[in-house]
Write a structure and sequence with these properties.
It is a single chain. By secondary structure, the protein is of the alpha/beta class. It folds into 2 domains: about 180 residues, NAD(P)-binding Rossmann-like Domain (Rossmann fold, 3-Layer(aba) Sandwich), CATH 3.40.50.720; about 190 residues, N-(1-d-carboxylethyl)-l-norvaline Dehydrogenase, domain 2. About 50% of the residues lie in helices and about 10% in strands. Strands 3-2-1-4-5-6-7-8 form an 8-stranded mixed sheet, with helices on both faces. Helix 1 crosses helix 2. It is globular, with a radius of gyration of 21 Å. The N and C termini lie far apart (about 45 Å). About 45% of the residues are buried. It binds nicotinamide-adenine-dinucleotide (NAD). The site of nicotinamide-adenine-dinucleotide has 21 residues, from helix 1.
Length: about 375
């Protein structure tokens, strides 16, 4: 379908996106601000492809062909010339993204799709600086792009259905699964649910209702998530999660950041990368916090997950995402063992609503149960 693809920004995400795109047979031009960064990115891609060869997942010839399909340049115009799809992955800064999209608009032909990998910025605002907002779309890969099976396709106010269809077809050719976030809401689908969940864990600890280890033990051993929520925050980076949460909070109060999270962020306790976050680290790459299984029943899962279920209900009621896609999003994007709606059905919608009401009466309107949940309880659709 696409002959040539350009990836703008060769950092954590950009180099991974270029790698998977080249592996699946596309010619890809990777652009960054310096030769040094580009060469570093190529080294990382080569290292990752060699790992695949060692594991028998890729032949040596396929490694060489994939590498040959990746071209590098610091010249944006050269990168995007004749590209039919652009995927921008520069830092999460709205002004920088707008500056780049304004240039891309002038450098590309009418049919070229302009994709952004932003995790939290409004697609419509990025599109507003172009003359073809119908061709601007969020193409949100997860980290690391080579391994994570999900891509969230995010529509801006003016993104056309043809653009979404072309990107859906493209994502399939990468052997990845896509969900469509049909409205440009803060946090899109996956981060909106993740932030509601992580911030609630941090509020529970801040309010003295449970300890970090108790929450992480419950989440890991009873909800069977791959990591505790504080362990996950340290792993992803408290700075990254703070910025994504702040973007949602500032735009529509879809989440409220806990003072506990704020404190870590302000002190530079970003997690594994800084040696301290919610846990402390000695620098060993494989180190994991020790979370005792015997603490797993000290806090109810419904207390931790209710705001995330509320966020899911909000997404459904506002027709942001289809029901089946929502559960797929958390399973493939967050490695949940089952969907958030499936979990809510197991706990009981009436129980979730009771927990939310109780929190609402103590802590305020953020916890008001979504009308969809109230309606389900009224109609005896309890799970
Ligand atoms: N890191 C993650 O886990 C993650 C996950 C999903 C989405 N995202 C999103 O992906 C985007 C990139 O994030 P990242 O973590 O890869 O950032 P990063 O800082 O690792 O990489 C950004 C790269 O863009 C380059 N760059 C800066 N200005 C540029 C310009 N004018 N032209 C070309 N290149 C330029 C930088 O030199 C850097 O190499 C952000 O929008 C982020 O929100 C990140």
């Amino acid at each position: 379908m696409f002959e040539k693809i350009a990836v703008i920004g060769a950092g954590t995400m950009g180099h991974g996106i270029a790698e998977i795109v080249a592996l699946k047979g596309y010619v890809v031009f990777m652009c960054d601000v310096s030769e040094e960064i580009l060469q570093g990115a190529i080294k990382k891609i080569e290292w990752s492809l060699r790992k695949m060869v060692e594991k028998g997942k890729l032949s040596h010839d396929d490694l060489t062909s994939a590498l040959n399909r990746i071209k590098t340049t610091t010249n944006l115009a050269e990168a995007v010339k004749d590209s039919e799809l652009i995927i921008e992955a520069v830092p999460e800064n709205l002004e920088l993204k707008k500056e780049i999209f304004s240039k891309l608009d002038k450098m590309t032909c009418a049919e070229t799709i302009l994709g952004t990998n932003t995790s939290s910025l409004p697609i419509s605002e990025i599109a507003s600086v172009t003359s073809k907002p119908d061709k601007v779309v969020g193409i949100h890969f997860f980290n690391p792009p080579v391994l994570m099976p999900l891509v969230e396709i995010v529509c801006g106010d003016k993104t056309s259905s043809q653009t979404v269809d072309r990107v859906l077809t493209f994502v399939k050719t990468l052997d990845k699964q896509a969900i469509v976030c049909k409205k440009d809401v803060p946090g899109f689908v996956v981060n909106r649910i993740l932030e509601a969940l992580i911030q609630e864990a941090a509020w529970i600890v801040y309010r003295g209702e449970a300890s970090i280890l108790e929450v992480d033990s419950a989440v890991k051993y009873r909800a069977k998530l791959p990591m505790g929520l504080f362990e996950l925050s340290d792993y992803v980076g408290i700075d990254v999660l703070y910025s994504a949460g702040k973007a949602i909070q500032d735009r529509d109060k879809g989440v409220i950041i806990s003072p506990l999270f704020e404190e870590c962020y302000k002190n530079g306790w970003y997690g594994k990368k800084s040696g301290k976050g919610f846990y402390t680290y000695t620098g060993d790459f494989w180190e994991k916090p020790k979370i005792p299984p015997e603490l797993a029943d000290k806090v109810r899962l419904e207390e931790i997950f209710a705001p995330a279920v509320n966020a899911a209900a909000w997404l459904l009621r506002n027709k942001v995402v289809e029901k089946e896609e929502l559960d797929k999003a958390v399973m493939l994007g967050l490695n949940f063992p089952e969907g958030i709606l499936q979990m809510a059905d197991k706990w009981g919608i009436d129980v979730i609503v009771q927990v939310l009401r109780s929190k609402q009466s103590r802590y305020g309107e953020y916890y008001r149960p979504d009308p969809l949940l109230e309606e389900m309880v009224a109609n005896n659709r309890l799970g």
